[in-house]
Design goal:
This protein is mostly helical. The protein has one domain (32-140): Fumarate reductase/succinate dehydrogenase, transmembrane subunit (3 helical TM bundles of succinate and fumarate reductases, Up-down Bundle). The chain has five helices and no strands. It has helices spanning 2-8, 33-63, 66-76, 79-106, 113-140. Helix 2 packs across helix 4. The longest helix is centred in the middle third of the chain and has 31 residues, at 33-63. It starts with a helix and ends with a helix. The relative contact order is 0.10.
């Protein structure tokens, strides 16, 4: 008897993902800072993988002789090469700062929305400020 009742009972619809609750025309989450920092953390992590390959290319060019090394340094000294290096500098500093933030999370701290937003903004600000500082020093010392 209970099995027959279960088959005829009205079941509630399954809950929808929060970004679908507004109906089929609503497809996006409301953007917030911690969402941005998560995306930037992943993107900078991928950029740092590229930096590892770039470091290997530098070592190979160095081992291949003066001509290969000169060509490599010429490419990296071009405006596009400098832009890539600038982006990789930001990637390293931001990923470091956000990694420290993740260490705090691993200890169970920093999940409150205001704290998460503050530390996210601090990680982004550190990445930008440290990158600008390094490139300003490089420019002032003639390294560029």
């Amino acid at each position: 008897m209970s099995e027959a009742k279960a088959n005829t009972a009205v079941t509630k619809p399954r809950p929808l993902s929060p970004h679908l609750v507004g109906g089929p025309h609503v497809f996006f989450w409301r953007w917030h800072l911690t969402m941005l920092t998560s995306i930037v953390h992943r993107a900078t992590g991928m950029a740092l993988y590229f930096a590892a390959f770039l470091g290997a290319a530098w070592a190979l060019s160095l081992a291949s002789g003066a001509e290969a090394y000169g060509q490599f340094m010429g490419v990296m000294g071009s405006p596009l090469g400098k832009l890539v290096l600038f982006g990789l500098t930001f990637s390293a500093f931001y990923h470091l700062a956000n990694g420290i933030r993740h260490l705090a999370w691993d200890s169970g701290k920093g999940f409150e929305p205001k704290v998460a937003d503050t530390t996210g903004a601090a990680a982004l600000a550190f990445g930008v400020a440290a990158t600008i500082a390094v490139w300003a020093i490089a420019f002032m010392t003639g390294a560029l």
